[in-house]
Design brief:
Layout: H1 10-13, H2 28-31, H3 36-41, E1 45-52, H4 57-69, E2 72-78, H5 87-93, E3 101-105, H6 108-117, E4 120-125, E5 132-133, E6 144-149, H7 158-163, E7 166-169, H8 181-195, H9 201-204
Parallel strand pairs: 1-2, 1-6, 2-3, 4-6, 4-7, 5-7
Helix pairs in contact: 4-5, 4-8
């Protein structure tokens, strides 16, 4: 359920009334994150990330870090996309290459067809005629999805777009024509995870620190 700006889920409204003096930044230990070994064992969000010829190794690392944050099942690295281990990937992944499963494929089409046979719906993040605005796309929590993110200059390949089940676009209201791929991945994954009701407050907030 969505709530308007400035409002809180009524379930937590009373619990979130704290004074400003009670607020403090959490330490690494207080964040209570999973270890890489625990991450491997827990149930994942039914989402897969496909990187279609992504050039920047820093962007690849960012994709791993974001995938870790939302317990994504797997990342497929396709075409010219760089692969771990690599120093430039590690700079932004910050160890997430050790927790998130990944696989390399020479072609993105091969991955898409394999995932579709496995019951995934594949959506490209791209600007095309008749694209669906991200804020209007409602994923089915009972389905599995794979999201395709393209090259920094050329975007998702045309032949890949034609094979996708959906094409989703992040609406923009400024002067620029596109977002950096790492930003696009972050926005898209959070949106899907939220709409698929995977951000369970019981898992996210420590009981004594709910806002």
């Amino acid at each position: 359920m969505l709530f308007s700006e400035g409002t809180l889920n009524p379930e937590f409204r009373e619990e979130r009334k704290v004074s400003k003096m009670q607020r403090k930044k959490l330490s690494m230990d207080e964040l209570n994150r999973l270890s890489p070994e625990e991450f491997k064992e827990v149930e994942k969000t039914p989402l897969v990330v496909i990187l279609d010829n992504v050039r920047s190794l820093n962007n690849v690392g960012s994709a791993f870090r974001t995938a870790d944050a939302f317990r994504i099942e797997k990342i497929y690295l396709c075409g010219i996309t760089g692969r771990p281990p690599h120093r430039e990937i590690n700079k932004t992944a910050l160890g997430a290459t050790e927790s998130v499963d990944w696989e390399y494929s020479e072609t993105t089409l091969e991955v898409i067809k394999k995932l579709q046979r496995g019951g995934y719906e594949v959506a490209a993040l791209e600007q095309v005629n008749h694209s669906i605005p991200l804020n209007q796309f409602i994923p089915n929590p009972q389905k599995k999805y794979a999201l395709v993110f393209g090259n920094e200059v050329f975007g998702v390949e045309e032949e890949v777009i034609l094979e996708c089940d959906h094409v989703i676009e992040i609406p923009q209201i400024g002067t620029k024509h596109s977002l950096n791929i790492s930003v696009t991945i972050g926005i898209s994954l959070w949106d899907f995870v939220n709409k698929m009701e995977r951000l369970n407050p019981e898992n996210y907030f420590q009981k004594d620190l709910r806002l």
